[in-house]
Amino acid sequence: MSTGLIVGLISPDHVRISSAVATSSVMPKIARPAAKLTPTLESDRGEGVVVAEQPKVRTTEGVVQGRWRQGHAEFRGIPYAQPPVGALRFAAPAPPHRWEGTRQAVEFGPVAPLSLPIEVPPQGSDWLTLNVGTPDPGTAGLPVLVWIPVGGYLAAASSDPMYDPAALTSAGVVVVTINCRVGAEGFAFLDDAPPNRGFLDQIAALEWVQRNIAAFGGDPSRVTVGGVSGGAGSVAALLTMKSARGLFRRAITHSVPGLHSTPVLARQVTAEFADRVGAAAPTAEALRDTDPWHLAAELTAFNAGLHAHRERWGRLTETGSALCPVVDGEVLPETPWPALTDGRASGIELLVGHARDEFRYFSVMSGRYGTFTEQDAHAALELLAPRPDGARAYRAALPHASPEELLETVYSDALFRMPSHKLAEANAAAGGTSYLFELCWVTPVLGGVLGACHSLDVPLAFGTLDCPVGTQLIGEQATPEAVAVSRELQQAWVRFITTGDAGWSEYRPGEHLTRALDAESKTVPYPEQASRQVWEGHSPAPFDLP
Asked: What is the pTM of this model?
Protein backbone atom coordinates (compact mmCIF):
# COMPACT_ATOMS: atom_id res chain seq x y z
CA MET A 1 0.00 0.00 0.00
CA SER A 2 1.30 3.44 -0.92
CA THR A 3 1.87 5.73 2.02
CA GLY A 4 1.39 8.59 -0.42
CA LEU A 5 -2.22 7.47 -0.54
CA ILE A 6 -2.38 7.98 3.23
CA VAL A 7 -1.22 11.57 2.95
CA GLY A 8 -3.68 12.23 0.17
CA LEU A 9 -6.74 10.87 1.94
CA ILE A 10 -6.32 11.31 5.68
CA SER A 11 -5.56 14.73 7.06
CA PRO A 12 -6.74 17.16 9.72
CA ASP A 13 -7.27 19.57 6.83
CA HIS A 14 -10.09 17.32 5.64
CA VAL A 15 -11.77 17.41 9.03
CA ARG A 16 -11.29 21.16 9.15
CA ILE A 17 -12.90 21.74 5.78
CA SER A 18 -15.88 19.46 6.35
CA SER A 19 -16.64 21.08 9.69
CA ALA A 20 -16.17 24.54 8.22
CA VAL A 21 -18.56 23.93 5.34
CA ALA A 22 -21.11 22.42 7.68
CA THR A 23 -20.96 25.35 10.09
CA SER A 24 -20.19 28.25 7.78
CA SER A 25 -23.35 30.12 8.78
CA VAL A 26 -23.20 29.18 12.47
CA MET A 27 -21.19 30.95 15.15
CA PRO A 28 -18.17 28.78 16.01
CA LYS A 29 -17.80 27.14 19.37
CA ILE A 30 -14.60 28.35 21.03
CA ALA A 31 -12.88 28.11 24.38
CA ARG A 32 -14.38 31.34 25.69
CA PRO A 33 -17.85 32.57 26.70
CA ALA A 34 -20.41 31.69 24.05
CA ALA A 35 -21.26 34.35 21.50
CA LYS A 36 -24.84 35.55 21.06
CA LEU A 37 -26.64 35.26 17.75
CA THR A 38 -28.51 38.54 17.59
CA PRO A 39 -31.01 40.32 15.35
CA THR A 40 -29.72 42.52 12.56
CA LEU A 41 -29.88 45.76 14.55
CA GLU A 42 -28.73 44.60 17.97
CA SER A 43 -25.71 42.71 19.26
CA ASP A 44 -23.50 42.17 22.26
CA ARG A 45 -20.51 44.52 22.21
CA GLY A 46 -18.83 43.58 25.43
CA GLU A 47 -20.48 42.59 28.69
CA GLY A 48 -23.81 44.27 29.28
CA VAL A 49 -23.42 46.84 26.48
CA VAL A 50 -26.04 46.80 23.74
CA VAL A 51 -25.53 49.05 20.74
CA ALA A 52 -28.16 50.04 18.24
CA GLU A 53 -26.03 49.83 15.12
CA GLN A 54 -23.79 47.21 13.65
CA PRO A 55 -20.30 48.32 12.53
CA LYS A 56 -19.92 49.80 9.07
CA VAL A 57 -16.74 50.43 7.11
CA ARG A 58 -16.23 52.13 3.75
CA THR A 59 -13.84 50.16 1.55
CA THR A 60 -12.52 51.24 -1.85
CA GLU A 61 -15.30 49.17 -3.45
CA GLY A 62 -18.17 50.24 -1.21
CA VAL A 63 -19.61 50.18 2.30
CA VAL A 64 -19.78 46.90 4.25
CA GLN A 65 -21.75 46.23 7.41
CA GLY A 66 -20.65 43.50 9.79
CA ARG A 67 -21.62 42.74 13.36
CA TRP A 68 -20.27 43.02 16.86
CA ARG A 69 -19.35 39.71 18.48
CA GLN A 70 -17.60 39.08 21.77
CA GLY A 71 -16.32 42.61 21.97
CA HIS A 72 -14.90 42.83 18.44
CA ALA A 73 -16.25 43.75 15.03
CA GLU A 74 -16.43 41.02 12.42
CA PHE A 75 -16.98 41.36 8.67
CA ARG A 76 -17.43 38.26 6.53
CA GLY A 77 -17.55 37.39 2.85
CA ILE A 78 -16.04 40.61 1.44
CA PRO A 79 -15.03 40.12 -2.23
CA TYR A 80 -11.41 40.93 -3.04
CA ALA A 81 -11.78 39.84 -6.69
CA GLN A 82 -14.54 38.94 -9.10
CA PRO A 83 -15.93 35.37 -9.11
CA PRO A 84 -13.49 33.34 -11.24
CA VAL A 85 -16.12 31.67 -13.40
CA GLY A 86 -17.34 31.96 -16.98
CA ALA A 87 -14.87 33.94 -19.05
CA LEU A 88 -12.75 34.52 -15.91
CA ARG A 89 -12.38 30.84 -15.10
CA PHE A 90 -8.70 29.81 -14.90
CA ALA A 91 -7.73 33.47 -15.38
CA ALA A 92 -5.77 35.71 -13.05
CA PRO A 93 -8.02 37.31 -10.43
CA ALA A 94 -9.91 40.36 -11.73
CA PRO A 95 -10.49 43.44 -9.54
CA PRO A 96 -13.77 43.35 -7.61
CA HIS A 97 -16.79 45.33 -8.78
CA ARG A 98 -17.87 48.40 -6.85
CA TRP A 99 -21.34 48.50 -5.32
CA GLU A 100 -23.83 51.12 -4.28
CA GLY A 101 -25.41 51.27 -0.85
CA THR A 102 -24.39 48.99 2.02
CA ARG A 103 -23.28 45.39 1.50
CA GLN A 104 -24.14 43.01 4.32
CA ALA A 105 -20.97 41.23 5.48
CA VAL A 106 -22.28 38.76 8.07
CA GLU A 107 -22.01 35.42 6.22
CA PHE A 108 -18.89 33.63 5.03
CA GLY A 109 -18.36 33.43 1.30
CA PRO A 110 -18.59 30.06 -0.49
CA VAL A 111 -15.47 27.91 -0.64
CA ALA A 112 -13.78 27.09 -3.90
CA PRO A 113 -14.36 23.48 -5.02
CA LEU A 114 -12.58 21.05 -2.72
CA SER A 115 -10.73 17.94 -3.88
CA LEU A 116 -11.26 15.88 -0.75
CA PRO A 117 -12.98 12.54 -0.02
CA ILE A 118 -15.88 14.16 1.85
CA GLU A 119 -19.44 15.00 0.89
CA VAL A 120 -19.70 18.73 0.26
CA PRO A 121 -22.65 20.16 -1.69
CA PRO A 122 -21.72 22.61 -4.47
CA GLN A 123 -21.82 26.21 -3.30
CA GLY A 124 -21.92 29.60 -5.00
CA SER A 125 -19.26 30.92 -7.34
CA ASP A 126 -18.09 33.96 -5.32
CA TRP A 127 -15.02 32.05 -4.14
CA LEU A 128 -12.63 34.98 -3.76
CA THR A 129 -13.72 36.58 -0.51
CA LEU A 130 -12.13 37.39 2.82
CA ASN A 131 -13.14 38.11 6.40
CA VAL A 132 -11.92 40.77 8.82
CA GLY A 133 -12.01 40.63 12.61
CA THR A 134 -10.96 43.84 14.34
CA PRO A 135 -10.93 45.08 17.94
CA ASP A 136 -12.54 48.31 16.73
CA PRO A 137 -12.72 49.75 13.20
CA GLY A 138 -12.69 53.19 14.79
CA THR A 139 -9.13 52.86 16.04
CA ALA A 140 -5.90 53.04 14.00
CA GLY A 141 -2.43 51.57 13.64
CA LEU A 142 -3.12 48.00 14.83
CA PRO A 143 -0.94 45.10 13.64
CA VAL A 144 -2.54 42.79 11.08
CA LEU A 145 -2.47 39.01 10.53
CA VAL A 146 -3.53 37.70 7.11
CA TRP A 147 -4.13 33.95 7.42
CA ILE A 148 -4.10 31.65 4.36
CA PRO A 149 -6.06 28.50 5.33
CA VAL A 150 -4.88 26.23 2.51
CA GLY A 151 -4.48 22.50 3.14
CA GLY A 152 -2.57 20.29 0.71
CA TYR A 153 -3.32 22.77 -2.10
CA LEU A 154 -6.63 20.90 -2.21
CA ALA A 155 -8.87 22.90 0.11
CA ALA A 156 -9.23 26.34 1.64
CA ALA A 157 -12.04 27.40 3.97
CA SER A 158 -11.73 30.59 6.00
CA SER A 159 -15.04 29.69 7.63
CA ASP A 160 -13.41 26.94 9.70
CA PRO A 161 -14.18 27.52 13.41
CA MET A 162 -10.53 26.81 14.16
CA TYR A 163 -9.68 30.22 12.70
CA ASP A 164 -12.05 32.16 14.93
CA PRO A 165 -10.28 35.51 15.46
CA ALA A 166 -11.72 36.37 18.89
CA ALA A 167 -8.67 35.53 21.00
CA LEU A 168 -6.28 37.40 18.70
CA THR A 169 -8.52 40.44 18.29
CA SER A 170 -8.86 40.63 22.08
CA ALA A 171 -5.05 40.95 22.12
CA GLY A 172 -5.16 43.91 19.73
CA VAL A 173 -4.60 42.21 16.36
CA VAL A 174 -6.69 42.73 13.23
CA VAL A 175 -7.23 39.27 11.69
CA VAL A 176 -7.95 38.66 7.99
CA THR A 177 -8.75 35.16 6.72
CA ILE A 178 -9.13 34.45 3.02
CA ASN A 179 -10.60 31.99 0.55
CA CYS A 180 -8.70 31.25 -2.65
CA ARG A 181 -8.63 28.76 -5.51
CA VAL A 182 -7.07 25.35 -4.92
CA GLY A 183 -6.93 22.02 -6.73
CA ALA A 184 -7.49 22.14 -10.48
CA GLU A 185 -8.97 25.63 -10.34
CA GLY A 186 -5.87 27.01 -8.65
CA PHE A 187 -2.95 24.83 -9.76
CA ALA A 188 -3.66 22.82 -12.94
CA PHE A 189 -0.82 23.70 -15.34
CA LEU A 190 -2.82 24.76 -18.42
CA ASP A 191 -1.31 25.82 -21.73
CA ASP A 192 -3.48 28.93 -22.12
CA ALA A 193 -3.84 30.12 -18.52
CA PRO A 194 -1.56 31.72 -15.94
CA PRO A 195 0.05 29.14 -13.63
CA ASN A 196 -0.27 29.11 -9.84
CA ARG A 197 -3.59 30.96 -9.85
CA GLY A 198 -4.04 30.17 -6.17
CA PHE A 199 -0.96 32.27 -5.41
CA LEU A 200 -2.24 35.07 -7.63
CA ASP A 201 -5.46 35.06 -5.59
CA GLN A 202 -3.46 35.40 -2.40
CA ILE A 203 -1.58 38.38 -3.83
CA ALA A 204 -4.90 39.98 -4.82
CA ALA A 205 -6.13 39.53 -1.24
CA LEU A 206 -2.95 41.12 0.12
CA GLU A 207 -3.40 44.03 -2.28
CA TRP A 208 -6.95 44.45 -0.96
CA VAL A 209 -5.52 44.56 2.56
CA GLN A 210 -3.10 47.31 1.56
CA ARG A 211 -5.96 49.36 0.09
CA ASN A 212 -8.48 48.83 2.86
CA ILE A 213 -7.15 47.58 6.18
CA ALA A 214 -6.64 51.08 7.63
CA ALA A 215 -10.42 51.54 7.50
CA PHE A 216 -10.74 48.54 9.83
CA GLY A 217 -8.19 49.91 12.31
CA GLY A 218 -5.17 48.09 10.88
CA ASP A 219 -1.78 49.40 9.82
CA PRO A 220 -0.94 48.38 6.21
CA SER A 221 2.78 48.68 7.04
CA ARG A 222 2.48 46.08 9.84
CA VAL A 223 1.02 43.10 7.98
CA THR A 224 2.04 39.55 8.88
CA VAL A 225 1.01 36.79 6.47
CA GLY A 226 0.68 33.27 7.85
CA GLY A 227 -0.46 29.73 7.17
CA VAL A 228 -0.07 26.07 8.05
CA SER A 229 0.74 23.20 5.67
CA GLY A 230 -0.31 24.33 2.17
CA GLY A 231 -0.91 27.80 3.61
CA ALA A 232 2.66 27.83 4.95
CA GLY A 233 3.91 26.69 1.56
CA SER A 234 1.97 29.55 0.03
CA VAL A 235 3.64 32.04 2.37
CA ALA A 236 7.07 30.60 1.56
CA ALA A 237 6.32 30.98 -2.14
CA LEU A 238 5.24 34.59 -1.65
CA LEU A 239 8.71 35.34 -0.29
CA THR A 240 10.15 34.68 -3.77
CA MET A 241 7.50 36.44 -5.88
CA LYS A 242 8.23 39.97 -7.11
CA SER A 243 4.52 40.79 -7.26
CA ALA A 244 4.21 40.10 -3.52
CA ARG A 245 7.02 42.41 -2.43
CA GLY A 246 5.90 45.25 -0.21
CA LEU A 247 2.57 43.60 0.61
CA PHE A 248 3.62 42.24 4.02
CA ARG A 249 6.34 42.80 6.59
CA ARG A 250 6.48 39.53 8.53
CA ALA A 251 5.57 35.88 8.03
CA ILE A 252 4.41 32.92 10.11
CA THR A 253 4.76 29.43 8.65
CA HIS A 254 3.74 26.22 10.43
CA SER A 255 4.72 22.90 8.82
CA VAL A 256 6.02 24.17 5.48
CA PRO A 257 5.60 21.45 2.82
CA GLY A 258 8.14 20.84 0.10
CA LEU A 259 5.50 20.43 -2.63
CA HIS A 260 6.51 21.88 -6.02
CA SER A 261 6.63 20.45 -9.51
CA THR A 262 8.80 21.23 -12.49
CA PRO A 263 6.96 22.43 -15.61
CA VAL A 264 7.72 19.24 -17.51
CA LEU A 265 6.20 17.05 -14.79
CA ALA A 266 3.28 19.40 -14.20
CA ARG A 267 2.46 19.46 -17.90
CA GLN A 268 2.43 15.67 -18.10
CA VAL A 269 0.31 15.27 -14.96
CA THR A 270 -2.19 17.92 -16.07
CA ALA A 271 -2.47 16.35 -19.52
CA GLU A 272 -3.23 12.98 -17.93
CA PHE A 273 -5.85 14.57 -15.69
CA ALA A 274 -7.45 16.48 -18.59
CA ASP A 275 -7.67 13.24 -20.55
CA ARG A 276 -9.35 11.58 -17.56
CA VAL A 277 -12.17 14.14 -17.54
CA GLY A 278 -12.63 13.97 -21.31
CA ALA A 279 -11.08 17.31 -22.23
CA ALA A 280 -9.67 17.61 -25.72
CA ALA A 281 -6.50 19.25 -24.39
CA PRO A 282 -4.95 20.47 -21.12
CA THR A 283 -6.25 23.98 -21.67
CA ALA A 284 -8.60 26.42 -19.98
CA GLU A 285 -10.67 26.51 -23.16
CA ALA A 286 -11.16 22.74 -23.11
CA LEU A 287 -11.96 22.60 -19.39
CA ARG A 288 -14.00 25.79 -18.99
CA ASP A 289 -17.38 24.12 -19.51
CA THR A 290 -16.68 21.27 -17.07
CA ASP A 291 -18.59 21.79 -13.85
CA PRO A 292 -16.10 23.01 -11.20
CA TRP A 293 -17.32 20.63 -8.51
CA HIS A 294 -17.26 17.69 -10.91
CA LEU A 295 -13.70 18.64 -11.83
CA ALA A 296 -12.78 18.74 -8.14
CA ALA A 297 -14.32 15.32 -7.54
CA GLU A 298 -12.38 13.90 -10.47
CA LEU A 299 -9.17 15.28 -8.97
CA THR A 300 -10.00 13.55 -5.69
CA ALA A 301 -10.20 10.21 -7.49
CA PHE A 302 -7.09 11.02 -9.54
CA ASN A 303 -5.11 11.78 -6.37
CA ALA A 304 -6.27 8.51 -4.79
CA GLY A 305 -4.70 6.58 -7.65
CA LEU A 306 -1.39 8.45 -7.80
CA HIS A 307 0.54 5.49 -6.42
CA ALA A 308 -0.07 3.64 -9.70
CA HIS A 309 2.11 6.22 -11.47
CA ARG A 310 5.18 5.88 -9.24
CA GLU A 311 7.43 4.69 -12.06
CA ARG A 312 6.45 7.68 -14.23
CA TRP A 313 6.16 10.48 -11.68
CA GLY A 314 8.38 9.41 -8.77
CA ARG A 315 8.24 11.37 -5.51
CA LEU A 316 5.09 13.28 -6.44
CA THR A 317 3.06 10.10 -6.06
CA GLU A 318 3.83 9.99 -2.33
CA THR A 319 2.12 13.32 -1.62
CA GLY A 320 -1.49 12.71 -2.61
CA SER A 321 -1.53 16.12 -4.35
CA ALA A 322 -1.05 15.71 -8.10
CA LEU A 323 -1.66 19.38 -8.97
CA CYS A 324 0.68 21.28 -6.69
CA PRO A 325 2.48 24.61 -7.29
CA VAL A 326 4.69 24.76 -10.37
CA VAL A 327 8.11 26.41 -10.51
CA ASP A 328 7.16 28.06 -13.80
CA GLY A 329 9.88 30.74 -13.83
CA GLU A 330 7.43 33.64 -13.98
CA VAL A 331 4.72 33.63 -11.32
CA LEU A 332 6.88 31.38 -9.13
CA PRO A 333 10.46 31.92 -10.33
CA GLU A 334 12.02 29.31 -8.04
CA THR A 335 11.52 27.54 -4.74
CA PRO A 336 12.14 29.67 -1.63
CA TRP A 337 15.14 27.81 -0.23
CA PRO A 338 17.73 28.54 -2.97
CA ALA A 339 16.14 31.93 -3.67
CA LEU A 340 16.84 33.03 -0.09
CA THR A 341 20.15 31.24 0.36
CA ASP A 342 21.62 32.66 -2.85
CA GLY A 343 20.35 36.19 -2.28
CA ARG A 344 17.68 36.35 -5.01
CA ALA A 345 15.01 36.94 -2.37
CA SER A 346 15.28 39.15 0.69
CA GLY A 347 15.14 37.90 4.25
CA ILE A 348 12.22 38.85 6.45
CA GLU A 349 11.07 38.62 10.06
CA LEU A 350 9.95 34.98 10.12
CA LEU A 351 8.35 32.74 12.74
CA VAL A 352 8.55 29.16 11.50
CA GLY A 353 7.83 25.87 13.20
CA HIS A 354 6.78 22.27 12.84
CA ALA A 355 5.47 19.43 14.97
CA ARG A 356 7.81 16.75 16.23
CA ASP A 357 5.63 13.85 15.01
CA GLU A 358 4.29 15.35 11.78
CA PHE A 359 3.45 12.08 10.04
CA ARG A 360 1.87 10.32 13.02
CA TYR A 361 -1.64 11.65 12.40
CA PHE A 362 -1.68 10.23 8.89
CA SER A 363 -0.50 6.78 9.93
CA VAL A 364 -2.90 6.54 12.89
CA MET A 365 -6.00 7.78 11.12
CA SER A 366 -5.37 5.56 8.08
CA GLY A 367 -5.08 2.48 10.31
CA ARG A 368 -1.49 1.84 9.25
CA TYR A 369 0.18 2.82 12.53
CA GLY A 370 2.08 -0.17 13.90
CA THR A 371 1.95 -2.14 10.63
CA PHE A 372 4.76 -0.67 8.52
CA THR A 373 7.33 -3.21 7.36
CA GLU A 374 10.98 -3.13 6.35
CA GLN A 375 9.81 -3.10 2.74
CA ASP A 376 7.75 0.04 3.43
CA ALA A 377 10.68 1.72 5.15
CA HIS A 378 13.04 0.82 2.29
CA ALA A 379 10.64 2.26 -0.30
CA ALA A 380 10.19 5.47 1.69
CA LEU A 381 13.93 5.97 2.13
CA GLU A 382 14.71 5.31 -1.52
CA LEU A 383 12.04 7.70 -2.73
CA LEU A 384 12.12 10.55 -0.18
CA ALA A 385 15.59 10.67 1.41
CA PRO A 386 17.96 13.23 -0.17
CA ARG A 387 20.00 11.88 -3.08
CA PRO A 388 22.38 10.26 -3.56
CA ASP A 389 23.12 8.69 -0.18
CA GLY A 390 20.30 9.87 2.09
CA ALA A 391 18.90 6.37 2.65
CA ARG A 392 22.26 5.13 3.90
CA ALA A 393 22.72 8.26 6.01
CA TYR A 394 19.37 7.76 7.74
CA ARG A 395 20.20 4.16 8.64
CA ALA A 396 23.63 5.18 9.92
CA ALA A 397 22.17 8.02 11.99
CA LEU A 398 19.37 5.86 13.43
CA PRO A 399 20.93 2.38 13.73
CA HIS A 400 18.44 1.11 16.31
CA ALA A 401 15.28 2.53 14.71
CA SER A 402 12.51 0.13 13.79
CA PRO A 403 11.14 0.13 10.22
CA GLU A 404 8.16 2.13 11.46
CA GLU A 405 10.40 4.72 13.12
CA LEU A 406 12.53 5.06 10.00
CA LEU A 407 9.49 5.49 7.78
CA GLU A 408 7.86 8.02 10.09
CA THR A 409 11.09 9.98 10.36
CA VAL A 410 11.71 10.23 6.62
CA TYR A 411 8.09 11.15 5.86
CA SER A 412 7.99 13.78 8.62
CA ASP A 413 11.32 15.18 7.42
CA ALA A 414 10.67 15.20 3.68
CA LEU A 415 7.12 16.53 3.85
CA PHE A 416 7.31 19.12 6.66
CA ARG A 417 10.19 19.19 9.13
CA MET A 418 13.15 19.79 6.84
CA PRO A 419 11.34 22.27 4.57
CA SER A 420 10.46 24.24 7.71
CA HIS A 421 13.93 24.03 9.23
CA LYS A 422 15.58 24.86 5.91
CA LEU A 423 13.32 27.90 5.52
CA ALA A 424 14.46 29.27 8.89
CA GLU A 425 18.07 28.62 7.86
CA ALA A 426 17.72 30.18 4.40
CA ASN A 427 15.90 33.23 5.71
CA ALA A 428 18.68 33.87 8.23
CA ALA A 429 21.27 33.47 5.47
CA ALA A 430 19.38 36.12 3.44
CA GLY A 431 19.68 38.63 6.27
CA GLY A 432 16.30 37.98 7.82
CA THR A 433 15.47 37.18 11.42
CA SER A 434 14.15 33.65 11.98
CA TYR A 435 12.49 32.24 15.09
CA LEU A 436 12.15 28.46 14.98
CA PHE A 437 9.97 26.22 17.15
CA GLU A 438 9.17 22.54 17.39
CA LEU A 439 5.90 21.47 19.00
CA CYS A 440 6.83 18.69 21.41
CA TRP A 441 3.69 18.57 23.57
CA VAL A 442 1.99 15.17 23.23
CA THR A 443 -1.78 15.28 23.01
CA PRO A 444 -3.50 12.83 25.40
CA VAL A 445 -6.04 11.86 22.73
CA LEU A 446 -6.10 8.12 21.92
CA GLY A 447 -3.83 7.44 24.85
CA GLY A 448 -1.11 9.71 23.47
CA VAL A 449 -0.50 7.71 20.31
CA LEU A 450 -0.90 10.81 18.10
CA GLY A 451 2.15 12.35 19.73
CA ALA A 452 2.88 15.95 18.70
CA CYS A 453 1.23 15.60 15.30
CA HIS A 454 0.54 17.68 12.20
CA SER A 455 -1.93 20.57 12.69
CA LEU A 456 -2.03 20.25 16.48
CA ASP A 457 -0.35 23.64 16.77
CA VAL A 458 -3.07 25.59 14.93
CA PRO A 459 -5.96 25.43 17.44
CA LEU A 460 -3.33 25.99 20.12
CA ALA A 461 -2.21 29.21 18.41
CA PHE A 462 -5.72 30.52 17.69
CA GLY A 463 -6.95 29.52 21.15
CA THR A 464 -9.80 27.51 19.63
CA LEU A 465 -9.23 24.40 21.73
CA ASP A 466 -12.83 23.24 21.58
CA CYS A 467 -13.51 23.78 17.90
CA PRO A 468 -14.16 20.50 16.01
CA VAL A 469 -10.51 19.96 15.08
CA GLY A 470 -9.41 21.07 18.53
CA THR A 471 -11.55 18.47 20.28
CA GLN A 472 -10.43 15.82 17.80
CA LEU A 473 -6.75 16.52 18.39
CA ILE A 474 -6.74 17.80 21.98
CA GLY A 475 -9.81 16.23 23.60
CA GLU A 476 -13.23 17.37 24.76
CA GLN A 477 -11.71 18.96 27.85
CA ALA A 478 -8.38 20.68 27.38
CA THR A 479 -5.85 19.74 30.06
CA PRO A 480 -3.96 22.42 32.00
CA GLU A 481 -0.89 21.50 29.97
CA ALA A 482 -2.76 22.11 26.70
CA VAL A 483 -3.96 25.47 27.96
CA ALA A 484 -0.42 26.41 29.00
CA VAL A 485 1.07 25.48 25.61
CA SER A 486 -1.75 27.32 23.85
CA ARG A 487 -1.14 30.43 25.93
CA GLU A 488 2.59 30.42 25.20
CA LEU A 489 2.20 29.91 21.46
CA GLN A 490 -0.55 32.50 21.17
CA GLN A 491 1.49 35.03 23.14
CA ALA A 492 4.45 34.34 20.85
CA TRP A 493 2.22 34.99 17.84
CA VAL A 494 0.89 38.26 19.23
CA ARG A 495 4.33 39.47 20.25
CA PHE A 496 5.80 38.54 16.86
CA ILE A 497 2.93 40.08 14.86
CA THR A 498 3.24 43.25 16.94
CA THR A 499 7.03 43.63 17.28
CA GLY A 500 8.78 41.04 15.09
CA ASP A 501 10.19 39.27 18.17
CA ALA A 502 8.78 35.85 19.12
CA GLY A 503 10.17 35.99 22.65
CA TRP A 504 13.05 33.51 22.42
CA SER A 505 16.50 33.53 20.84
CA GLU A 506 16.56 33.86 17.08
CA TYR A 507 17.85 31.04 14.91
CA ARG A 508 21.47 31.55 13.82
CA PRO A 509 23.69 29.27 11.73
CA GLY A 510 26.00 27.32 14.01
CA GLU A 511 23.65 27.64 17.01
CA HIS A 512 20.34 26.35 15.58
CA LEU A 513 18.45 27.57 18.64
CA THR A 514 14.86 26.35 18.70
CA ARG A 515 11.95 26.75 21.11
CA ALA A 516 10.75 23.29 22.15
CA LEU A 517 7.09 23.95 23.00
CA ASP A 518 5.85 21.70 25.77
CA ALA A 519 4.18 21.85 29.17
CA GLU A 520 7.57 23.15 30.29
CA SER A 521 9.09 24.79 27.22
CA LYS A 522 12.75 25.52 26.75
CA THR A 523 15.09 26.94 24.14
CA VAL A 524 17.57 24.32 22.94
CA PRO A 525 19.71 23.45 19.91
CA TYR A 526 17.50 22.09 17.13
CA PRO A 527 16.06 18.82 18.53
CA GLU A 528 16.16 16.86 15.24
CA GLN A 529 19.93 16.91 14.87
CA ALA A 530 20.18 13.53 13.15
CA SER A 531 17.75 14.61 10.44
CA ARG A 532 19.42 18.01 10.11
CA GLN A 533 22.75 16.33 9.44
CA VAL A 534 21.26 13.92 6.90
CA TRP A 535 19.81 16.92 5.02
CA GLU A 536 22.93 19.08 5.35
CA GLY A 537 23.63 20.61 1.94
CA HIS A 538 20.25 19.56 0.54
CA SER A 539 17.15 21.68 0.00
CA PRO A 540 13.69 20.39 -0.91
CA ALA A 541 13.82 20.00 -4.69
CA PRO A 542 10.84 20.31 -7.03
CA PHE A 543 9.28 17.03 -8.11
CA ASP A 544 10.47 16.03 -11.57
CA LEU A 545 10.24 13.10 -13.93
CA PRO A 546 12.43 10.25 -12.60
From this structure: 0.92
